[in-house]
Amino acid sequence: MKIALFPGSFDPVTKAHVDIIKRSVGLFDKFYIGIGDNSSKKGLLTVAQRENMLRAVFSDDPKIHIVSYDGLTINFARSIGAAHMIRGIRTVSDFEYEKAIAQMNHALAPEIESIFIVSKPGYSSISSTIVREILRHNGDVSQFVPKEALQFL
User: Fold this and answer.
1) Confidence (pLDDT) at 37
2) How many CB atoms lie under 10 A from the CB of residue 46?
3) Alpha helices, DSSP H only, in 1-153?
4) Known catalytic residue at 9
5) What is the DSSP string of 64-106?
6) Which pLDDT value is given to residue 33?
7) Sheet of 113-118: strands edge to edge?
8) Which of 23, 29, 22 is nearest to 4 (CA)?
């Protein structure tokens, strides 16, 4: 069975996240969306809210499993039997950052392969960080997040 993990903070989930997931889920038998806590980012939603939001967005896909975790992502990937870790790439700086993490993960768990999926050009400027900033100033984020997520924001 081919198992993949797409880890992130998903605070909140964006249309860019959804695009990466929809384009990669068909490659695997089981697909986990792992909600990690990024201590370097100031959060907007609780982990429970993010779980519920992602479940609402992906309720129609039985291959997708939404889970939260603590600790190193690579250890969590190993614990669920994931042989692949999906990462979305929007920009050159994303690539440099993700490449460094992938190389460290490979040193820690060579059996888990990182797969980079390049975002579609229309989504390359969308990030959860920018969406949070728009929300903090009472802006309209409906063009950046899936409609199912709006009820959580």
Assistant:
1) 78
2) 11
3) 15-24, 47-57, 73-79, 92-108, 128-136
4) no
5) EEEEE--S-HHHHHHHTT-SEEEEEE-SHHHHHHHHHHHHHHH
6) 98
7) 64-68, 30-35, 3-8, 84-89, 113-118
8) 29
Set out the domains of the chain in order of their start, with CATH numbers. Answer: 3-152 (3.40.50.620)
Distance, CA of 72 to CA of 93 (rounded, Å): 22
| 41: annotated active-site residue | yes
* 90 belongs to the catalytic site: yes
What is the per-residue pLDDT across 115-145, written as a single tens digit (0 to 9) for each? Answer: 999 999 999 999 999 999 999 999 999 999 9
Taking the C-alpha atoms of residue 149 and residue 3, their distance in angstroms, rounded to an integer, is 26
SS3 state of residue 23: helix
pTM of the model: 0.94
How far is 127 from 106, CA to CA, in rounded Å? 26
Catalytic choice (9, 15, 17, 24): 17
For residue 17, indicate whether it is catalytic: yes
